From TrEMBL:
It is found in: Cell membrane. Gene3D superfamilies: MetI-like. GO terms for cellular component: plasma membrane. It comes from Leisingera methylohalidivorans DSM 14336. PANTHER family: ABC TRANSPORTER PERMEASE PROTEIN, OLIGOPEPTIDE TRANSPORT SYSTEM PERMEASE PROTEIN APPC. InterPro entries: BP-dependent_transpt_permease, MetI-like, MetI-like_sf, OppC_N. It comes from the Bacteria. It is a multi-pass membrane protein. This is ABC transporter permease. The keyword Flavoprotein does not apply. The chain crosses the membrane at residues 30-52, 102-130, 142-162, 168-185, 223-244, 279-300.
Length: 314
């Protein structure tokens, strides 16, 4: 009698693809198109050293005589510069690739810092409660009363004045990640606190206490996993917000220097040349920024609908 061999367990990718979220993703054309566009932009950005024909950080590859050449579809262009050149003679296609990578890096790292601060504060506030909870939430309310840009402008302006322009430009990435991350932690803290207040009264938390588990293990190993759904949704939206904040600060001259171009500093550097006819220096990076933020927000909206049982219709 022939014995049937057991079927191998499906891989994690197969489980995710066949889950409710995977099914919803396949059924949602907006989410599919947004994911494809985001992966194309992010993949091209992080592969910039391989894809880009020029290195915009290398002064030896810049020629001021090549400045303000239009894109390939406009008369007067040069064939080696597909999207034209900027005011410093850099290849705009290469500069956009490196700039997008820098904007994504700042956005993701700033959101990671937001999540670390907000989740830690939200867990402690919700689990401990009492006066500590009131104190931490009042700090969150005070933080929310100030806009991110206002806090960032004050902090970066003071930092630039204290350390000088050269030092500020050298560590601009660190300063931007720090100020954008610290300014937005209350979004995570309030969401996690609300989840902790609901979860800590349930039986599995009481069982963990009876077994002798400490507060840290209960918060991290038992309560935190039940807060992951709203955290994922917030993180998606916050990445888009962080990218916009970085672009706004760079446009105002308080972000990345022209020698380390991000999408915001590219838009800022080309703004003075719009009326002289060199519209592509600002317009093309601006389109990339709009598309990038749009697809991230669309993915965040889809994720919110799927992870919220009240909104998800299958």
């Amino acid at each position: 009698m022939e014995t049937l061999s057991p079927k191998p367990d499906p891989s994690r990718w197969a489980k995710a693809w066949n889950s409710n979220m995977g099914y919803s993703f396949r059924r949602n054309p907006v989410a599919v198109v947004s994911m494809i566009i985001f992966l194309l932009i992010a993949g091209a950005a992080f592969l910039a050293p391989v894809i880009a024909p020029y290195d915009p950080y290398d002064p030896a590859q810049m020629d001021i005589m090549n400045s303000e050449y239009p894109p390939a579809w406009v008369s007067g262009s040069l064939p080696e510069f597909v999207l034209g050149t900027d005011d410093q003679g850099r290849d705009l296609w290469s500069t956009i690739l490196y700039g997008t990578r820098l904007s994504l890096l700042i956005g993701i790292c700033a959101v990671a810092l937001q999540a670390l601060l907000g989740i830690s504060i939200g867990l402690i506030a919700g689990y401990v409660g009492g006066r500590l909870d009131s104190l931490l939430m009042r700090l969150a309310d005070i933080q929310l009363s100030f806009s991110t840009l206002m806090v960032a402008i004050i902090f970066l302006a003071v930092t630039q004045a204290m350390f000088g322009t050269d030092t500020f430009n050298r560590y601009a990435v660190v300063f931007l990640i720090a100020v954008i991350g610290v300014a937005e932690w209350p979004q995570y803290a309030r969401t996690v606190r609300a989840t902790v207040l609901a979860e800590k009264k349930k039986e599995y938390v009481d069982s963990a206490r009876v077994l002798g588990f400490g507060p840290m293990r209960i918060m991290v190993r038992h309560i935190l996993p039940n807060s992951l759904s709203p955290i994922f949704v917030i993180s998606t939206v916050q990445v888009a917000n962080a990218i916009i904040s970085e672009a706004s600060l760079s446009f105002l001259g308080l972000g990345m220097p022209p020698s380390q171009p991000s999408l915001g500093s590219l838009i800022s550097s080309g703004f003075d040349y719009i009326f002289s006819g060199s519209w592509w220096i600002t317009a093309i990076p601006g389109v990339v920024l709009v598309v990038l933020v749009l697809v991230i927000n669309l993915l965040g909206d889809w994720m919110r609908d799927v992870l919220n049982p009240k909104l998800y219709k299958g």
